[in-house]
Amino acid sequence: MTFIDDVVAFLEGFEFGGNSGYDYALALGVFLLSILVLQIFKYLIIGRLKHFLVKKDRSKTAQQLLDRLNKTISFTLILFISLMNGVMVIETPSLLDQVIRVIVYLLLSYALLKLLFVIVDAFLLNSKVGKSLSSNLIEFLRLFFKTIIVVIVLLWFLSNLGIDTTAFLASFGVFGLAIAFALQNVISDIFAALIIYIDRPFEIGDYIQIGSDIGEVEKVGIRSTKIRVLAGNLLIVSNRELISTRIFNHKKMEKRRVPMTIGVHCSTPIEKLREIPKWLESIVTGIEGVTFDRAFFTAINDYSYDFEMVYFVMSRSYSEYLKIRQEINFKIVEVLEANEIIIPYPTSTVELEGQTSVGA
Question: pLDDT tens digits, residue range 40-59?
Answer without folding.
Answer: 777 776 666 666 655 554 55
